[in-house]
Amino acid sequence: MQINELLFIIINISLIRKVMFNLNLHFIFFTIIALASTISIARDNRSTAPTPQNPSMAQTNHNSTTALMVRKNNNNWDDYVAVGTIATVSQICEVFSHPFFEIPAKNYRILDTVNGQFRWNGIEASTLWIKKKFKDANAYSRSLSLDKNTLAIADQNFTACLKQIKIKNPKLFNFIKHRFLHYLKDDYCLEQRFRIKKQVDDNGNITEERIPLKKKSCINFNYNSYDYSYWNSTTFVLMLVWKEAHPVLSTIFENGNKVINARFIKRDKLIKQKQLAEEKKKSEIQKNKETYNKRKQVWLRYKSRKKTLMEQVYNFSTTGDLEGLQYNYWVEVKPCILSNGRKRIDNRKINMTAFRIYSEINNQKIKMISSDNKIYFSTYTNISIDRLQKAWKLAFNKCPGKTSRF
């Protein structure tokens, strides 16, 4: 090999090594830049990415002041979904300003109740509305299931409202307590309660320490086993603490007012009819009393005067007494014409040719019958027929009747 070719090879090898060295430097440089960019991006992403946590806690904290959270309808029992807004204290109290709560307490007796719970047409709108809202939000609907935060905030607002009502309107508070919150047997949930812990030192001095007890909730959904499928305290309180439910409550109480008003109109009508009937009855009694007194006076005057022959015959024929009786006596209104107030007889029109006086054996009734087969007189009084015959002979002599050949 020649010297020139050897030098050429050596020079080329040197150039190649130099180029390779430069390429390695560039590669290392770009690699460092790429790594630095990646680290920077990761750092930025780490500063903005959410910290992993329990899904239910994240959702609860996010809605900690306003959202009404209900268990979601899935297999994860720690998963909740917002169905509305928790009502504020003023919003809850505003519900009780409805005219339904302003009428006298005794007027509510006119409403129907089932196990102490009100019932009227339209009150079922509460349950229907809750079910619809749960379905729209894909919430668990077999029973009521709220998250702890919702229960805490709802109880806080509800308790505050009850406190205000108890102070401003104790009668309304008692009405709400006995008619809507059947589980609320006492008012302990309204105030913080304490237990007293006593201690003694070595000198015998006693000190007392007030230790706060766990607050009793003014909301007790468990009283109805978390069942809102009908109108009860659970349904009512849920609607109260659910802001969006208030228009529905307003309509429900408006329907209650309509039922009360309609029933009072019906009751007043019945009372008026009863009063009119009683007044009519009293009027009839008074009228009968006056008639009785009048008849009694007429009877007394009649009894005290001397009777005519015809009056005596007619009285004797019907009562067995010549004077007659108070409710059965005859008056000769005109000569030969007699009346007992119920019928009027002209003695001159009686067919006396075949006038018969006889006693019926079966019913012991005495009958006096004319020949035309018309009964003019009858009596159950035991009267002597001989005496009757003599009396009628005198009557026909005084006022002769009609005669016939047979």
Please summarize what this structure is:
With 406 residues, the protein is α+β, with helices and mostly antiparallel strands. It has helices at 3-48, 55-62, 89-95, 125-136, 148-168, 170-179, 233-241, 246-304, 309-319, 385-398, and strands at 67-71, 80-85, 112-114, 117-119, 194-200, 206-212, 331-334, 337-339, 344-346, 356-360, 365-369, 375-379.
Description of the molecule:
By secondary structure, this protein is an alpha+beta fold. It has two domains: 57-260, no CATH class; 306-398, no CATH class. The protein contains ten helices and twelve strands. It has helices at 3-48, 55-62, 89-95, 125-136, 148-168, 170-179, 233-241, 246-304, 309-319, 385-398; strands spanning 67-71, 80-85, 112-114, 117-119, 194-200, 206-212, 331-334, 337-339, 344-346, 356-360, 365-369, 375-379. The strands form five sheets. A three-stranded antiparallel sheet has the order 7-8-9, with helices on one face. It has a three-stranded antiparallel sheet with strand order 10-11-12, with helices on one face. Strands 1-2 form a two-stranded antiparallel ribbon. A hairpin with a 2-residue loop joins strand 3 (112-114) and strand 4 (117-119). The termini are far apart. Residues 1-13 and 18-64 have low confidence and may be disordered.
